[in-house]
Amino acid sequence: DTSFAAHVQHQFSSYEQDRQMSSKDVIYATSNGAAMPHPYETQRVGENGPLLLQDFHLVDLLSHFDRERIPERVVHAKGSGAHGFFECTDPMSDITLADVFATKGKRCPITVRFSTVGGESGSHDCARDPRGFSVKFRTEDGNWDMVANNTPVFFLRDPAKFPHFIHTQKRDPSTHLTHADDSTMFWDYLSNNPESIHQVMILMGDRGIPDGYRFMHGYAGHTMKLVNKDGDWVYGQMHMKSMQGTKYITQEDSANKSADYSQKDLYEAIQRGEYPKWSVEWQTMTPKQAEELWETQKINVFDLTHVWPQDQFPRRKVGEFTLNENAINYFAEIEQIAFNPSHMPPGLEPSSDPVLQSRLFSYPDTHRHRIGVNYQQLPVNAARTGYKFGNFQRDGQMAFYNQGARPNYLSSIDPIKFRTRSTDLDKTHGHFIGEAVTFLSEIRPEDFNAPRALWQKVFDEPARERFINNVAGKMEVCKEKEFIKRQIAIFREVDNDIAVRLEKATGIKGYDGIANMKFNGTHNGFAKDASL
Ligand code: HEM
């Protein structure tokens, strides 16, 4: 059959078959399919002369090799992943119309990617660093990406700080050293942005180096909105609880682990049939409760540095997910996966959290740079909806799903079908603004409550000692005493005990407190002085 239709059928049914490809099934050939007698056959003038430009085989080989690397992720570059499924155990259709949470026993295919944050793609898995925890749910209503971390809070609540913060976690522009050898930038940033303290306490404590990826929880961190079929909505915070429990590695132990410790652990556990599982749970809150929370406890639901009190807002379980399949081709199935917090199916919406709002833009933007404009068409990213979907996006590099002869405009000759909106737009988009924006850059006494509870109630005495050692070790390689004095003052606001112990460990006397300190990243101390 010489028709183009026959060719297309031959070509595009092959992704699934190619995943299982073995060398014994293939004949060595150049990229246009011409068989070659041997890979080491180079055409040259005579025995020892220069090479020939006509040698397509060599040019083909070298020019493809030259382009093997795509840009690595600007953050979270080192990672591991696997495939599996989510199963709904306790439907939440009363509060959300999200298809994935609607039916007991219904399964949804997923791919998960775990990562460290600051290091490059070959960096050490056991770094003291938050861990990324992303889940791509291939729901029948479109893909939903939960792009979470293993900590419920973050270093900042003002998205404009993110590139600054990340740069201080990466290599120095001049010395090219990381903060393992020179922590000056690291402490400069943190000692100027005290709202980071809750995350710093977690990072420097036992949870700072989880034991691989199977033994850690995941947290959305951001407040989201759950919208039901009547268009009513509540705020929600998603938790992914490891059903293996949690385990950590001490600073000392981390030095004895291999660079790919977490990759090996996850891959081998799945190969052995020990499939890791997480329970998916939601805290929910009405808009009215959110206002009360601000009035009574000064916790703003759009503030990523704070958590929702669990006693007032208990978790409600909706299902579990299991990772039971390793990737067959790491690059195609894990490196090219593209998570994006703005991939949300009906029933799930973003809140006004400004950090989340910025992320809605940043991820698809970076994917177009890292992978290309048609990144959604790659097999690992392609949606697997319960309906055939089409739109008016066309062309661009590597357009595989270019939608055939379908009109590329809203045609009246060949009209596209629409699914009516399930909820009332006015209702779902009604906003609770609160004071999220006005207090973003001000440090408040409440910022220290949760870190204080960690120190006083969660850490036992050996954990406190490990914490002090971790922080003091990190401070040893800081070149500016001033940053240490400032950071000790921030720790003093948490608990004077931390400051005293750090002063002893470092031999540096910290400032008394932050009231009279100036911060380049915030209003001054507890006062509303924005003059800096
Ligand atoms: C990865 C931006 C905050 C979790 C990334 C990437 C960018 C980015 C550009 C690389 C994506 C890629 O190349 O595929 C930002 C910005 C933030 C922010 C601008 C704040 C303004 C956060 C927060 C969390 C988070 C608060 C967690 C709650 C992640 C994770 C990944 C990631 C898990 C790795 C995704 C993967 O495995 O492919 N972020 N991020 N980020 N980010 Fe963020």
TrEMBL record:
It catalyses: 2 H2O2 = O2 + 2 H2O. It is an enzyme of class 1 (oxidoreductase). Residues 29-417 form the Catalase core domain. SUPFAM superfamilies: Heme-dependent catalase-like. Pfam families: Catalase, Catalase-rel. It comes from the Eukaryota. It comes from Knufia obscura. This is Catalase. PROSITE patterns: CATALASE_1, CATALASE_2, CATALASE_3. Keywords: Alkaloid metabolism, Heme, Hydrogen peroxide, Iron, Metal-binding, Oxidoreductase, Peroxidase. Catalyzes the degradation of hydrogen peroxide (H(2)O(2)) generated by peroxisomal oxidases to water and oxygen, thereby protecting cells from the toxic effects of hydrogen peroxide. The lineage of its organism: Eukaryota, Fungi, Dikarya, Ascomycota, Pezizomycotina. Belongs to the catalase family. Its EC number is 1.11.1.6. Pathway: Alkaloid biosynthesis.
